[in-house]
Amino acid sequence: MKAARFHGPKDIRIEQIPEPQLHPGAVAIDIAWCGICGTDLHEYLEGPIFIPPHGHPHPLTHEQEPVTMGHEFSGIVTALGEGVTGLSVGDHVVVEPYFVCGECRQCRAGNYQLCVKMGFIGLAGGGGGLSEKIVVDHRWVHPVGDIPLDEAALIEPLSVGHHAFVRSEAKPGDVALVTGAGPIGLLLAAVLKAQGLTVIISEVTEARKDKARTTGVADHVIDPSQEDLPARVRQLTGGNGADVGFECTSVNAALDQLFDAIKPAGVIVNVSIWGKPATIDMQKLVLKEIDLRGTIAYVRDHPATIKLVQEGKIDLKPFITARIGLDDLVEDGFGTLIHHKDTAVKILVHP
Amino acid sequence: MKAARFHGPKDIRIEQIPEPQLHPGAVAIDIAWCGICGTDLHEYLEGPIFIPPHGHPHPLTHEQEPVTMGHEFSGIVTALGEGVTGLSVGDHVVVEPYFVCGECRQCRAGNYQLCVKMGFIGLAGGGGGLSEKIVVDHRWVHPVGDIPLDEAALIEPLSVGHHAFVRSEAKPGDVALVTGAGPIGLLLAAVLKAQGLTVIISEVTEARKDKARTTGVADHVIDPSQEDLPARVRQLTGGNGADVGFECTSVNAALDQLFDAIKPAGVIVNVSIWGKPATIDMQKLVLKEIDLRGTIAYVRDHPATIKLVQEGKIDLKPFITARIGLDDLVEDGFGTLIHHKDTAVKILVHP
User: What ipTM goes with this model?
Assistant: First the structure.
């Protein structure tokens, strides 16, 4: 079958590899659509980052580069391994793309997203969504009912947003400030709206400001290069400040503004991946008793996330900005994300 | 009466001022002992910081420099204003030294420590513990029963430690790592021990390491300049890392080590006051889903803190390293804290 495999930076090849074999406890899936993640782009440009380099196989998959890429995918069940129940051939599904050890303290405490050996399908080995077929442990397979398979490919990044929401402990009626309207910022905002929050998005690029407006995920879109963001947020909240903040830019100025725009005793969740250290005014953390929280991926978030889409509380269609074939992955996929990153939200690949 | 008043940096004068007048709802107290806080030292060296400078009176006290200093004090009730119940003349008491507006959202939500106009007795005006007498609103007066009055003067900084403990949400049996064995680090450690935690203290100076050992507040004292602190903490916790961390140094290297020494999904409470921005490796915050929390002063912590001392769970005597008279405040008080800061824990002043 065809698969997109990482051989090194700027060396992702579409090649023929053997089909994966079904085994007890596993599920065979024909992949329908796979989204390209910012992580995939980082691997393409500067990898291997999460991908196990040659000579350093992943402790759980025992694989190393070249590995098949893609972790944001949907598909149709084609066969069930021995002992698998609760799924049927023909089911439309998504995959929570984890490898975890099941033995470390975090796994035993239920925090499998913090497993000491954690790896992702599509990065650590075990196949990936940027191929025709995959076989995964049934634990990670979530049926999506009648959600269209193209939209279902966005369940994975939407679950990232859902987990960030859970980490914030925000509640309906709260006011959230999201810095950055990239793919994760927008999908997180969609979760927040669906949960009954008022959403303020700060964004500087025109295309992303437009997207924040046209997708309906923001109650207010503020350009911090043109307006005083903390002052505007205070104005919109009766002088109080936002209840929760979500940092989705990895830009220090945005983090600084969150500390000013958040209410005393507020929570800031850092969702973005930082390539450099952040500088923080600890006096604001102290005098306002702010909680700054990290969030990574998802843990038991998929069912609730799928339900939000099934109930019509989130419409994923506006976030799909292109559909391409696997052969066009590098040129039309990564190429678009590099040269037109502000207009592209989610590019889906059909293998 | 005599009072120590701040007139400017390195200009604290012991002078005669009028006695405060009792009014309805207030309590008149003869001050027994007053501790010198690090904040007082900062004001002496570089103030006015929290003290309202000339021309900028505090919004609640309407006072400006010169103000009477001292906020860590104990005393004996000498008279009760009209309408005050629950206290008697002769009671031994301590004071939670706040001025708050009672009207802002934080006050209304019960978070009076985050009041937008918050000021401290002994800094913002309203008299101070470094004088013979004071009159304060009965709301802030806490009886201490038979706790000796010298030890009772340490209830205020001990409440800072108690509040940091509450902010951490730590529970009995947890392992805490406290960076820094200055006065607040030591008193916080005493609270943690009293709450049934295992306490690891990291400290570099010999005198403070000794104090951490001889006061009995630490189960382990580690010198991070001589040992690999995160590795030792992992070793002491079966590879897991500490459950909670408390930053009490305002040294960036200590904060960095906390991020390495804390378990995944752990909590770090920043207790120290930083004069400069902190640099944080956000990848550790993210990938370990760490909560970094600010804590300031106390809110409803005094009764529980007093109870810990009354029940004998905390012995405050070892933290009193000197007793001086008010006339010797500058030379023997601030002078000792400047030149012998590692051996001095709490210097008490008897006015």
Answer: 0.95
